[in-house]
Every structure is written in structure tokens, then in C-alpha cells.
């Protein structure tokens, strides 16, 4: 159930004292994670935030990924190393160099991920000592994977891990945060591993396809982090060549599992909401409409209040850039049809939203386009977590 | 200070019992308003929500505005008459017919505006009786204008009115809600009046220019109402022909005054935030960047917490569709430069955000583009107001 589920991987999570001491309890958590690919292959692929303001570790990892080859990934919580200028980039470079030293590889074979507050330099000496300690702790087995998965948590309350074994090979992974290259609540970092034999092109194609259908369709608050990163490392240690479609399918399954974990643990969540749009002119229109509904503060507060206020859903979809015709628009909430031809049908109170899962289904009645976006409600807890003074 | 400030106008606000009785105190408020243009001219112009799902009164008013001539506007709170199908449109039509009856004009000379819950039919008999009562109460003078301005309030806590007299003519108006054709918190309805002599083309051009720079740049939560409407009625009663630029200028002044009133009374507001973007490639880019910052939940919760968390501002602008270069990006909050070349400068704690006004200034350093968007924070009170069960 982790990055160490596939053969050929070791991991570690240690406490380096990077987290802000003023945070109390969370400061005593581990904050440096290391994932190492012992091969025989070291194929890698990555997808990154689309934010134009990119953190130093993103700029670094994008650069080293050009070789499509990674020996290791080092991650830290306690600081995003974003908006830190050339000195911040130097810190990332030094971190990769330190990992290269302890593993006996080149810095260009080391991916780096960071998460935490934007705009502050990392305590680099502590981080480098943490890398040394992590190298000593490296181990295979589930516990080691869990220690790594735990070391990168920030406002997360539980670690998010997944693994699927099939066809003679396995895909594993962990994730922190919630959101993705387009949307992001806090930074999302994901490390995926596999012991399948895959080509660099296959790894890249499968990762793009899998993230597009999973993390890219998780939208907590529409914000986009400077640090979002998803890395895939393939060791080939199973000795089995993966068939392209099967690999994409299993990778998508693991990503979907992790995405649901991120949704369930999102900041302030009280409702897990799936917004499905059908009958759109095309899939792109469906995605645009679903995302607009998922981001709408009035929809999200209504659902927090367990209110089947379908009028706000109709208003949100009408305000989207998707083509909408009121005459063919219907809205169903938790299986109860509430709106047909953009007008009320039945008794809205029959839609029971008191539970933690809400399914919003909008049929545009215009074509075959279809998409689902996962989101959460807008609650008091969300406001609490995000209005707490940052330092 | 109202729609009755210019010569040639009468107004009324009465209680017709349309508001949901379960709302308690607010149910006893007046809920039908009537504004009548006694001429000699009856020139009119309107701008409407861009939502593809338009309320019946919007569809009606867009239709009658083709004649660029209005004798009266009737408005109701207590129901949006949106997503109510052909029957709902029939209700709007009957309302206009009733106004036409009591005033002795054609229904095609009557604009209609509604605000309240989406998806429920109006209690039409009560509304028609309200129109009769309003016709009896019609009067000139400030009190009558205030009664009309008060009758359309929903979650508003105060009436919003403005007037400017200059060049021998006057522009007056009232507004309810917050937001506009693109963005909207709750429905925004605005009625503007003037006794200047203007042509229909001049009225239309001035109204579009004025709203684009004011209500269109007020963004409370990025949502877009099905009902947003701004109507301008010109009586020509001053006998003075308005010069085009002067008219646009005064109209913009009145709209800006009303927009500030909407911002100050937005749902759950504790901070009035002005986001100004300078140095953009062009004005459009500046507006896109400013609007993205103004809509960002992480920025809005940080400012609710009086936290000068400029990293979230930098992340939001980087995620916008405007062109952003980190190397030339700076962020100033309440006059204190916090970020230069996308990196921290100075002591963030010097930016004191404890007061109710916050100025966020972002310089993209790329060109001469400039825009300001007004918004508010994302507070517990906002969640409270919008998660209360709708019925």
C-alpha cells in the first residue's frame, strides 16, 4: 500500500526540525522524506503545476526530468521554497547534491519537492542533516513507505497511500495536500512507483493520461499552488514489460485512489461532493461546466448547509463558459431530480443531503460530453484553517 | 440622493407580502418597488447578466429595452422568478401589464426586475395587488426614493443610494445586492435616473461604459446571478442636453458610489479590499489578474485573518491567465512592499491589516496595463449567511 509496494524501492521519513516550531504539535512530526529507486531501471516522468510562479524545487525537477531518469526523490514539509529567488534555487540545488552524495549518483538524477509557507527560505543546514539521516534510515517494506508518506503532510490529518498489483507488476504511491496542476488547496505532492518495465515515453504518456483523469479533476478551492508535483519512478524490478494500456489503467486506478484520499482529507471538509455533467456538447464543455459548479462558493456553502439549493447549481452552470440551453438543462441531487428544463420539478426536500457524500448530476441535454469533478463543501473549518495567521 | 433626485421621476415602495414568511423580521419589510418616468422623454438603456440561465424578468426587460423607451420599472424582492419556465415568464408579463394598466401606458414600456430564491413561482396575486398599492403611493421627493430603494433589499442591511447634480442636470440611483453581470454575490439590481436630455444611443453608450468600470469590477465571490440588471431612465425634465463625455463621467461617478455601497454591505464582509494591478501587458491582462486575486479563496481567508500572506497573492496572480514574469513581480499590501522579483523583501509584519480597508497592489512590471477590482474577505459570516437552509 505504498511507494515501497513495488520491488526495487526503498524509502525513509525523518524529523529534521524544519517545521515551524510555533506550530506546536505538528512541529514534532517528521518533515523530510526520501524515496530511492534501486533499479535496475531508473525511468521517470513528472507533471508539474501550471502556475507561472513556480517554486525552486519545481524549476529544478522540471530540469532534471528532461533526462527522464531519476534515482531518487527528496521531499520536505515546513517550507515551500517558493518566491525565494536565486538563493532559494541554490538551496534546492544543494539538497539534490546532498542526496547525490549519500547515494553515490549525480544531482541531475535527484528530484526535489517542497511544501509549506511561500516566501521564506528553508533552514538549509537542518534539511541537509535530514537528508543524511534519511539515507541511514532507508528501508524497503510498508513501514518505510508510510514513514515517507507521513513526513510530507502539512494540514493533512492522515497519510494517503495506495497500491495495485496486476499483470505481474505493481504500482504504488503516496500523496499529500489536495488539488492539482490547475486547482490546489494546499500544495499537492505525489510520488508514484512501479516495478513494471516501461519506456520513458510510456511512463510520460501514462502519467499525463492518469493525472488528467484524476488529480486534474479534483478541485477543492480553485487555487493553484506554486509547488504541485507528481513524479513517477519505474524500477523494472518485476522483470515484466507492461502493456501500454494496462499500465495507464492501473496507474489511473492508483491516482484515483489517492485523489479520493485527498478529497476526503481536504481542509475543512464536511461533505465529499462529486459533480457530474452529462449531455454536454463535448467532454471539454462537460469539464468546464463541472469545474465551474465545483468552484462556486454559493453552491459549496449551500451543500455545507445540506441544502439542495439547485437554483445555485443552475446559476453556476449558466455562468460557465460551456454552452448551456435552459430548455434542456436538468439537475439531480443525490438521485432526486429537482430541475428539468431549468424549472423546478418535484419536492426539493426529498433530496437528503444530511450524509457526508453528495452527488450532483447536471444533464445539459445537448450532446454526449461527460465529466466528473470531485470537490468539497465550503465550511467554517475551511475558513478557520485558512485564516489562521501564517507566522 | 435617490432615483427621485432628478426631475421627472416618482417612486414608491410597499409591502405586498411576497417575502417568505418563515424569514421572520425581513418578511415584514416592503417588497415591491415602482419607479416612474413622467418625462417629457422616456429614453432608457439596460445591461443584464451574462448568465446563460436568465430569469424571466431579465428575458422580459431585454425584450422591451429594444425600443429604448421605458415609462416605468417595477421591482420585487422575495423571489427571483428564475428557473420558473414559461409560467414564470407569464407572471412577469402579467406584472408588466398591471403596471401598464395603472399608469395608462403599454406593457412594452415597463421594465421588470426580481430578486430572491431561484426556482420558485412568485405569489402573483399578491404581487399584482402590490403594484396597485405602489401606484397609489407614487410620489416625488427623497422619501419616496428611499422607500423604493428599501423595498428591493434581500440580505442587504442598508439601502444603497447615490445622486450627483452637475452641468444643470442630475443623475440618481439605487442598488441592491453585490456583484454584477460577470460576478455576483446575490442578485444585483440597479435603477438609475436622470433628468438630462440624452439620446437613446448616448444613454446606452454611457451606461455600458459606466458599468464596465464600476459594477463589472466589483467581485464578491465570482458567482453570477440569473437576475442582474442595471436600468437607466432619462426624463429630459431638466431641459438641458447633456454633453456625451460629461454624462458618462457623472453616470460613472454615481455607479462607483453605489458599487462601493454594495461592497461595504456584502454578505459577511469584515474587510473591504481593493486589488490594483499595474504594469500589466495591457488593461485586459490587468483586469484578469486583479479578478483572479479577488476571487481566490486562500487570499480572501488570509485577509479575513488580517494576514499579509503575500505568497498566496503571488500564487494567485501566477495562476491567472494574465502574462506574469516572476522576475518583475512585486506585491505591496497597505503601502508596505512585501515582495519584489517574486521574493520576500522587508518585514511582512509591518503591513498592518487590522483595519477594515485593505489595499493590495500588484505590479507585474511588464507594461502599462492597469485595473482595480473591489472585493471582500471570506469570513465565517459569509459561510453562515450562505449555508442557511433556503426554505
Mind explaining what this structure looks like?
Chains A, B: This is Arginine biosynthesis bifunctional protein ArgJ. Chains A, B: GO terms for molecular function: L-glutamate N-acetyltransferase activity, acting on acetyl-L-ornithine as donor. The structure is a homodimer of 391-residue chains. Chain A is an alpha+beta fold and 391 residues long. Helix content of chain A is 32%, strand content 25%. Chain A has two domains: 9-264, L-amino peptidase D-ALA esterase/amidase, CATH 3.60.70.12; 272-387, Ubiquitin-like (UB roll) (Roll), CATH 3.10.20.340. Chain A contains ten helices and 15 strands. In chain A, the strands form three sheets. The first copy, chain A, has a six-stranded mixed beta sheet with strand order 13-12-11-14-10-15. In chain A, strand 6 (160-166) and strand 7 form a beta hairpin. In chain A, helix 1 crosses helix 2, helix 5 runs parallel beside helix 6 (244-264) and helix 7 crosses helix 9 (310-319). The model of chain A is unreliable at 179-185 (pLDDT under 50).
SSE layout:
Two copies of one chain form a homodimer.
Chain A: E1 9-14, E2 32-37, E3 43-48, H1 56-64, E4 72-76, H2 85-103, E5 110-114, H3 124-137, H4 142-151, E6 160-166, E7 169-179, E8 184-194, H5 200-213, E9 229-234, H6 244-264, E10 272-280, H7 283-295, H8 297-304, H9 310-319, E11 330-333, E12 336-340, E13 343-344, E14 357-363, E15 369-376, H10 380-387
Parallel strand pairs in A: 4-5, 8-9, 10-14
Antiparallel strand pairs in A: 1-2, 2-4, 3-9, 6-7, 7-8, 10-15, 11-12, 11-14, 12-13
